[in-house]
Amino acid sequence: MKFFVDTADIADIREMADTGLLDGVTTNPSLIAKSGRDFMEVTKEICDIVDGPVSAEVVALDHDTMMKEAETLRKIADNVCIKVPLTIDGLKTCKKLTGDGTQVNVTLCFSANQSLLAAKAGATFVSPFVGRHDDNGFDGMELIADIRQIYNNYNFGTEILVASVRNPVHVLKSALIGADVATMPPAVIKGLFKHILTDKGIEGFVADWAKTGQSIPTQ
Ligand code: G3P
User: What domain range includes position 109?
Assistant: First the structure.
């Protein structure tokens, strides 16, 4: 499963990229607002740090303006992935852009039928929002399982990009279901490394090693 980080914070993106485990970045208008940075400028900076897809979202609601915005955004770098909402205009835009070889992430997916539409529109990625699904009394992971089954049934190439991930359990369940990508806030990625027994084990090994009075030569 690929790991994307869901942020427009450059320091966080650098830290995650340095782990060697980062496959891409997703942003959205709320994350750009939170960064306080100029959209074009920060997107370019992110694309220079990460080789994988960097999702940048259009903000227009009509197809013609979405296409114009996408035209501007895709000139930022070759790894820009245009993010469009799951609406009729968004999917028209998706079809047109993917037809030209541009990567497209269809966002704000909340039902399996919507994911079917995104796949039929040729989306590179579909982004079902599991956390917001859970928040509203639905089972976000059940949605991911349904989408996986539908995409398998018809051999759709659209990648399932699990979004609105709130905790490591969302990541674990996504991996068990066979989702292609999870986009996570930096804190959730860091949380994946954590286990109390790992910390305790290190503590024990460090203490016992000190008793040996030895050191491993480092050059
Ligand atoms: O990028 C979209 C998504 O990940 C938003 O997450 O936590 O605001 O529902 P959240």
Answer: 2-194
Q: Is the dihedral of CA 71, 75, 41, 131 positive or negative?
A: positive
Average pLDDT, the chain: 98
* 184 beta partners: 5
What residues are labeled active site?
83
DSSP letter at 84?
E
CB 57 less than 6 A from any atom of ligand 1: no
Rounded CA gap, 192 and 171, in Å?
9
Taking the centre of ligand 1 as the mean of its atom positions, its distance from the CA of residue 66, in whole angstroms, is 21
Residue 216 lies in a domain: no
Entry pTM = 0.96
Based on its alpha-carbon atoms, the radius of gyration of the chain, rounded to whole angstroms, reads 20
Ligand 1 pocket residue status of 26, Cβ below 6 Å: yes
Contact 38, 14 (CB under 8 A): no
Provide the CATH number for the domain around residue 51. 3.20.20.70
